[in-house]
Amino acid sequence: MKFKLSPFEKKDLVIAWLALAVAFTLGASGILAVFMEGFSILSPEKMLLTFVISLITVGLSFILHELAHKFAAIKFGYWAEFRKSAQMLVIAVAVAVITGIVFAAPGATLINTAGRQMTKRENGIISISGPLVNIILIIPFAVIMFVGVFLGGVEAVAGGLFFNPFTLAGFLFYLGMIGCQINAMLAFFNMLPVGPLDGKKILAWKPAIFVVVLLITLLLVYFAVDPVVLVNIITPMV
To answer: Of 9, 37, 66, 81, which is the active-site residue?
Structure first.
């Protein structure tokens, strides 16, 4: 079975991508208000920059997450295609506005087994492929963030962190930080063992693997959402 995207799938991916970028832009504004000293994201320039960075990072994080599910399903011989959920997209944006945190399942990769009985192992592997992609993507974004810190793009102050995203060093730090936040949030949210989320199927397949991956994503969310802790760890190394 070939790996290809249908016109409907492409359209749904683009719509979900844009909606999530908006949600993460609004979510980032809440996070920055808490942890970033002197960073008023409400200015048009900074809001636009955050949206552009969210587009870049969501484009990698969300789309690769869904394509990982699709690729894994196809490897097992199934048909798979992403479909957006308008209701979940609205919820993602609303929650971001209210809490500053984005927990989003903007849709799902639908799988047609063509009458075959999908095993727990197949379902578990297909499900875990998405969160694993997000965990792996944190590595290059963390490196980008480290480079920004190394170049002097961020300073730890009493109120949190201070940085100028319109300098090269500040931009790299900001890009890496948002990338880490998006991937950590997507991985953790999808690992929750409820409803149609990946975690429920992974738990049914291998409880031990579920617990390990869930704890990893929880730790990643802690460091990503509160970058002050990470910067304080990195700074003495610079």
So the answer is: 66
